[in-house]
From TrEMBL:
Family annotation (PANTHER family): 2-HYDROXYACID DEHYDROGENASE HOMOLOG 1-RELATED
Spans through the membrane: none
Matching Gene3D superfamilies: NAD(P)-binding Rossmann-like Domain (3.40.50.720)
Organism: Limosilactobacillus antri DSM 16041
Protein name: 4-phosphoerythronate dehydrogenase
Family to which the UniProt record says this protein belongs: Belongs to the D-isomer specific 2-hydroxyacid dehydrogenase family.
Length: 330
């Protein structure tokens, strides 16, 4: 029977894992540990599925080769935690899950766009302090009167664009590869024009050398002082220090961040006692009244979790059978 090891497994994934094992007659071994701390478990297994944000320890790749493994499947869209060249040098095929549920992240971004337009972050804080007043500068925008800019109009950004269009918003898009099928939904413009015109800018790009630092001080300076920024892509896409400065200087009104620089140190950790002193930029974001932080949970829905498990495991079986995977990372 084929044996597959899955690392960094959460309780909410177990039902989908059990169902897949039964339907495909495979044995799946799970551990909550990262592959870095569980590489010894790969001895005697045929396949490997990982999930983590931190880089895989370079020592792991030759150990996987020594144990006879032929692949690494990451059940995430991002694959920057894997050194692709090191994997290939050790005969390992790498796959990811590029579209586990575009709707999950798009719906989260839409929720945050609404929260920024309705200035709910201000009312949340006021009511929590027993202040039930409202002020002139808290007047909201109805979404059909707003211009929303999407940077990265791919699977997720395109799904968001369709949701926004259905609500009557004007949707601007910037992408290095505009898609013809988005005609009539998205108005493609330059990055600069999008930043200048948008009431909210939502980021939906992969993390790569060209997208790292994509939004920095000069970009933020182009935005309306009443505008908001949503980042549900990857933290390093935005230069956090520049964003903090722009928010303090009122170059833009607010930000909703599901991903942010320094998140690897805080996501899935309990900081109620320790606090955030060791991650000063995150601490600064957390303390700001006009910043909404969520712990990288835009993907976290019933359908997305099942798809991430199923697609990753299906890729393992394809590679083990000598067949090409449509999700192979070259």
């Amino acid at each position: 029977m084929t044996k597959i090891l899955m690392t960094s497994v959460r309780d909410d994934e177990q039902a989908a894992i059990k169902q897949f094992a039964q339907e495909h007659d495979v044995e799946i071994i799970t551990t909550p540990k990262l592959i870095d701390d569980a590489v010894e478990l790969t001895a005697g297994v045929d396949g490997l599925v990982i999930q983590q944000r931190s880089p895989v320890d370079p020592a792991v790749y030759p150990q996987l080769k020594a144990h006879g493994l032929k692949q690494i499947a990451t059940r995430t869209a991002g694959f920057d935690m894997v050194d692709i060249q090191a994997a290939h040098d050790n005969g390992l095929t790498v796959t990811n899950v590029p579209a586990y549920s575009p709707r999950s992240v798009a719906e989260h971004a839409l929720m945050q766009i609404f929260r920024l337009l309705r200035k709910s972050y201000r009312f949340d804080q006021q009511v929590a302090a027993n202040d039930f007043r409202w002020f002139s500068d808290e007047q909201a925008m109805e979404i059909h009167t707003a211009t929303i800019g999407i940077i990265g109009v791919g699977r997720i950004g395109g799904t968001l664009a369709k949701l926004l269009k259905a609500l009557g918003a004007r949707v601007l898009g910037f992408d290095v590869q505009p898609r013809e099928e988005m005609a009539g939904i998205v108005e493609y413009v330059s990055k600069e024009d999008l930043l200048k015109q948008s009431d909210v800018v939502s980021l939906h790009v992969d993390l790569n050398p060209s997208s790292t630092g994509l939004i920095a001080a000069p970009d933020l300076a182009l935005m309306k002082p009443t505008a908001g920024l949503v980042n549900a892509s990857r933290g390093p896409v935005v230069v956090t220090a520049d964003l903090v400065a722009a928010l303090k200087d009122h170059q833009l009104a607010a930000a909703a961040l599901d991903t942010f620089e320094g998140e690897n140190e805080v996501v899935m950790t309990d900081r109620r006692e320790k606090g955030l002193a060791d991650v000063p930029l995150v601490a600064e974001l957390h303390a700001m009244a006009n910043v909404i932080l969520t712990p990288h949970i835009a993907f976290f829905t019933n359908l997305a979790v099942k798809n991430m498990v199923d697609f990753a495991l299906e890729d393992v079986l394809l590679v083990l059978a000598g067949k090409p995977s449509p999700h192979e990372v070259k």
